[in-house]
Amino acid sequence: MAERSPTAAPGGPFSAVESTTGSEASAAREASSISLKGIRKEYPGGVVALESVDLDIRAGEFFTLLGPSGCGKTTLLRMLAGLDEPSGGSLSIGGVDVTDTPPHKRSVNTVFQSYALFPHLSVRDNIAFGLKMRGMARAEREQKVVEIAEFIKLGSLVDRRVDQLSGGQRQRIALARALICEPDVLLLDEPLSALDAGLRSQLQVELLRTQKRLGMTFVFVTHDQEEAMVMSDRIAVLSDGIIQQIGTPQEVYERPANLFVARFMGHDNLFSISAREGMTVQTPIGALETEDKNDGRVALIRPETLELTSPGAPSVEPGKRLNTLMCRVVERFYRGSNVEYRLSHQNGEQHSELIAEISNTGDRLFRVGDEVKVEIYPEDVIMLSDDEEGA
Amino acid sequence: MSQVDVVWRRRRRRETRHLLVSVLPGALWIFIFLVLPSAYLMSVAFMTNGGFGQPQMPLTLDAFRNLAGFGFLGWSPGNLYTLWRSIFQSVISLGLVVLVAYPVAWYISMCRPRLRAIMLLAVVVPSWTNQVIRAFGWMNLLSPGTPLSTLAEKMGLIAPNMGLFPSDFAVTLGLVYNFLPFMVLPLYAAFEKLDHAQIEAARDLYASPLRTFFVAVLPQTLPGLLAGSVLVAIPAFGMYVIPELLGGGRSQMLGNLVASQFGEAANWPLGAAGALLMLLATLLGLVILRRMGRRLGGGTEMVI
């Protein structure tokens, strides 16, 4: 099932969207799982972009490749598209090996970062391009364009010229151009990175809804961890051509596999561990109780798990043994729904900084210079290996 | 008149003077050395040829009738052949130049930056040598008895002892060789800013390699191709040196016709008429290329 028939049944996924339930849609696309085994990419000159990647992406999943620039995420995506050839390993889509299949023979379409619309073609011809290349008759193509325009609400955009479109509009045309081919897998290479924040979050929602309605497998590349968390069913975090962690957004954020992932997910409260005795670890902010049985070199405390009270106040949970620290507020960032405090902690000679994110429940806020009591639940002290290979 | 008005007028006068001073030298230069001679040439085309080859009154269309082939011995197609040869040679050599320059420019654009500079130099440097000298070079390579000519003879491409020079072939070769850099450079500029994402998008959307070329590569290089065509076809059409030297007098082009009328044939009106025809044909060519550029470029100005 490398290639889909050019004449899909009338009333395809775009026309019959309202009547198609999620399970039906995913059943129709069971052939769209992806499996990578030992995928390697080495450029001439010895630069290794990917080091033996094993990855299984389920059918109908919104899967995100997340990592800093140069981590190999785009290379991986390009291999799925067939635009780059792996130096080793095998790649199959829907159980069929496509390692050596050229891009124009794969039922995979890409939304490019730069959109890559054809400027000399009309918007309509841009959208219908893939269908034309597959030899679909003109009348049928026109019908499909009308359907997809309806589906992603392009309105009158189809009658414009490419150079009359704004960034957001181009993005949607690029999406329409790829979706209209009804590929087994849709690849998205940082499709929102060129857009301003407002439009970006709007299109995030649209993209996510589109994916859910179609039940199509989406593989999304981004360097923005918030975007990845909002959109994805599962995330693979990459660094230096190695997958550091694969998991749901919650797993990756709350239980990062190692220091790299923790840092990349935006965590700042990281304290190196000098010694461990039972469930007590020695850190620059003092001895901390933990419930994490894993051995680690670094302790992570997520900023939203910190409990802040006035120095004299009773414990937030008197029956439980909590880690308690005295800190001073150095900076306060008021964000409306929550408040971020930068705290400084003095442990003998050791000076440390902590960040606390407290949801704004309308209570009195602490001021810069205030002394605060910080309480940390033992289960929120997470052990991390700083060895990035230890994923 | 108010004070403000006076100041304003004075400033305006100063600006006018400033403008005049800066534009006048150039304008005079163009007027004296381009407009006047052209006007004179055009008027000569409508004069009669005097007994000593001097243009004189009355004004007639004789020169144009002459150009069309009507001489005192009746009609002969000689001049039409020359015109046809000019068109044919410039079109054929344009086509060949494109065929050679396109892959060369593409290849250079894909090389490492250091290598690119060297290769571009290799393309351009020969054109710094005098055209005449290069034409003589080709003569030496193509004359009867040279290895290339002997090879062509052995392969039965030419009659024995004829040599590849002088011939129409030698003229075409000379034109292609001469104008190659004028096509390579604009094409290279187009290839250098090629948007590879478009190529990948075409491949991703099921276009075969050939269709990918026509959809994603050719349109992007079209501005360069058209600019190059203007730079090649138009000078080639009026080329004088190469047909003169490599054609051996048998492969005259319009430029040679004009030159000979002003020289040994001593018929200035006919020469002027030929020059006028050349000018008109050149303008026509420009208009056609412009139109093509506008249509293919989706309304944006692409050539000149």
Automatic annotation (TrEMBL), chain A:
Where does the source fall among the domains of life? Answer: Bacteria
Tell me the GO molecular function terms.
ABC-type transporter activity; ATP binding; ATP hydrolysis activity
Question: Matching SMART domains, A to Z?
Answer: AAA
InterPro entries linked to this entry: AAA+_ATPase, ABC_SmlMolc_Importer, ABC_transporter-like_ATP-bd, ABC_transporter-like_CS, Mo/tungstate-bd_C_term_dom, P-loop_NTPase, Transp-assoc_OB_typ2
* UniProt KW Transport keyword: yes
Entry's EC annotation = 3.6.3.31
EC class of the enzyme, as a word: hydrolase
Cellular-component GO terms for this entry:
ATP-binding cassette (ABC) transporter complex
Can you give the residue ranges of the ABC transporter domain?
34-265
Region feature Disordered, mapped onto this chain: 1-28
Does Transferase appear among the keywords?
no
The annotated regions of Low complexity compositional bias extend over 15-28
Alphabetically list the UniProt keywords: ATP-binding, Hydrolase, Nucleotide-binding, Transport
What's the protein name? Spermidine/putrescine import ATP-binding protein PotA
Q: What's the encoding gene here?
A: potA
From TrEMBL, chain B:
Classification via InterPro entries: MetI-like, MetI-like_sf
Q: Which GO terms describe its biological process?
A: transmembrane transport
- Fetch the Gene3D superfamilies from UniProt: MetI-like
Taking the first listed entry, what is the main subcellular location of this protein, grouped into a coarse class? membrane
Where in this chain does the record put each ABC transmembrane type-1 domain? Answer: 83-289
User: Which terms in the GO cellular component ontology are assigned?
Assistant: plasma membrane
Transmembrane regions: 19-42, 87-108, 115-133, 169-191, 212-242, 268-289
- Fetch the SUPFAM superfamilies from UniProt: MetI-like (SSF161098)
* Keywords (A to Z) from UniProt: Cell membrane, Membrane, Transmembrane, Transmembrane helix, Transport
Q: Where in the cell is it found?
A: Cell membrane
Task: Give a Pfam family name.
Answer: BPD_transp_1
Question: What is its membrane topology?
Answer: Multi-pass membrane protein
| Stated family | Belongs to the binding-protein-dependent transport system permease family. CysTW subfamily.
What is this protein's record name? Spermidine/putrescine transport system permease protein PotB
Question: Gene name?
Answer: potB
